[in-house]
Design brief:
- The chain is an alpha/beta fold.
- 47% of the residues lie in helices and 15% in strands.
- The chain folds into two domains: 121 residues, Rossmann fold; 86 residues, 3-Layer(aba) Sandwich (Rossmann fold), CATH 3.40.50.300.
- The chain is built from ten helices and eight strands.
- The strands form two sheets. It has a five-stranded parallel sheet.
- The structure holds cytidine-5'-monophosphate.
- The site of cytidine-5'-monophosphate (C5P) has 14 residues, from helix 2, helix 4 and helix 9.
Length: 227
């Protein structure tokens, strides 16, 4: 019988723009494992709380919203991007805006909200394996994961990557603003009292500054395959 604890997990944590999403997707595809985009879950909660016009500092109201919002990840098939469906409504694009990112970061700072989301995240651990992308995957959600990676990159490079991504989507953004937002968000994520952003003691830290994607994918796969 397969117990949940026997399902291998690779945790990929790191700050925004460190390349986690792209790397996690590529590595999950190579391993044939499923994927948990935990940032999308926090974004979905920030978005749902906004839709319900909740005060984002009201921990109990937002935690209730986190517990009863239905968040589904749907594979559209044909290699398309995973769709994020919130209470039956496709919110894939809506949760990717900078406003939604800021709302996610605000609700993620509330311990009650993080607690309400633990079981939803653990449920993704299914055979043959899971690649879990986030901030506290290796430290809090899957502390027993056999494979842990922490990706970093300079703030300037992360802002640059984000700038290109958003520009490609036709959004009006400036590099200076993005750099400022990234620095603010990093500071908030690293200084919060609950699940602050830091590498797990047993994580392999990989600096992706100036590194092409295939090189980072290879370095992460090497962590899984070294055993
Ligand atoms: O990774 P992404 O930018 O989509 O995450 C949005 C926000 O959700 C982050 O800035 C962070 O505040 C929060 N988050 C978190 N813990 C996670 C994943 C995301 O606190 N495991």
């Amino acid at each position: 019988m397969t117990t949940q604890a026997s399902v291998p997990v690779l945790t990929i944590d790191g700050p925004s723009g460190s390349g986690k999403g792209t790397i996690a997707r590529a590595v999950a595809d190579r391993l044939g494992w499923s994927m948990l985009d935990s940032g999308a879950i926090y974004r979905a909660v920030g978005y749902a709380a906004g839709e319900r016009k909740l005060d984002l500092t009201d921990a109990h109201a937002v935690a209730r919203c986190a517990a009863d919002t239905r968040i589904e990840f749907r594979d559209p098939g044909g290699g398309g991007d995973t769709r994020v469906v919130i209470d039956g409504v496709d919110a894939t694009e809506a949760i990717r805006t900078e406003t939604a990112g800021a709302a996610a970061s605000a609700v993620a700072a509330l311990p009650e909200v993080r607690e309400a989301l633990v079981d939803k995240q653990l449920a993704f651990r299914r055979p043959p394996g899971l690649v879990a992308d986030g901030r506290d995957m290796g430290t809090v959600i899957f502390p027993d994961a056999p494979f842990k990676v922490f990706l970093t990159a300079s703030a300037a490079e992360r802002a640059e990557r984000r700038y290109k991504q958003l520009k490609a989507k036709g959004l009006a953004v400036t590099l200076a603003n993005l750099l400022h937002e990234i620095e603010m968000r990093d500071a908030r994520d690293a200084s919060r009292t609950v699940a602050p952003l830091r590498p797990a003691a047993d994580a392999v830290v990989i600096d992706t500054t100036g590194q092409p994607i295939p090189a980072v994918v290879a370095a992460v796969l090497a962590v899984v395959r070294r055993t």
